[in-house]
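Problem statement: downstream parser choked on a complex file, so we are re-checking the raw output for the iron/sulfur cluster run. The parser issue turned out to be on our end (a line-ending mismatch), but while we're here, posting the original submission so the record is complete.
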Amino acid sequence: MEILDHLPVELSEEKILKKLRAKPGNETIERGVRELLDMVRPVVNARAVYECSYVEDKQEDSVLIRGTRFTSRVLRVNLDNVGRVFPYVVTCGREADALKAPENDVMSAFLLDAIKESVVQSASRYLREYIVKKYVLGQVSTMAPGSLKDWPITQQKELFSVFGNVEELIGVRLTPSFLMTPIKSVSGIMFPTEVRFESCQLCPRESCVGRRAPHNPELAKKYGENVIGNVADAAITPKA
Ligand code: SF4
């Protein structure tokens, strides 16, 4: 297991404004983002934990990793020819999470939320590149519990059990409903793949701002008809 502290994160005012689709010259938003970045940058400590692991057993709809059984037909099929996998948790960190916008300042709260999301997205990209480089992998994909009906969010408990006490390690804990806190955290299993996989390919949800790949109903046939569907994870989990 390796813990990464103070992950390098890119917090560019320009990119955040672009992500917010702010019109150029909107001074209120530009000043707001600038001031909040000044608040976040000195304290931010994005962190990650991951474990280089092996698939120990494969059943029809499940795999065993580090003695923990993960039940998902899609994950099982994706790991068909895979031996080594990387369970992980990444977070924007408690320091950034603790920052609050002034009370009743809805705009600042919105902008701060977008900045915290940028932190975890940037940290996730860094972790992906770090693992690819360290273990000399080619292309990798990830899957997360809760991203598809096929792999329920309750399996966050199993994922966290791979690491022991994640709260002690990097300050992330699970709520009784298996959401992560800080909420700007992402978790999952990374695996090498020849063809890039995104859960969004199997998810029919139309109005999702977090969509990372077009819906591909044909692809579902590869996994079996019962795997289609989502649990609206975009609403609860920042996307890497
Ligand atoms: S809810 Fe959105 S982000 Fe989640 S799998 Fe569906 S399209 Fe992708």
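For whoever reads this later: The pocket of iron/sulfur cluster is lined by residues 147, 199-200, 203, 205, 208, 210-211, 230, 232-234, 239 (CB under 6 Å).
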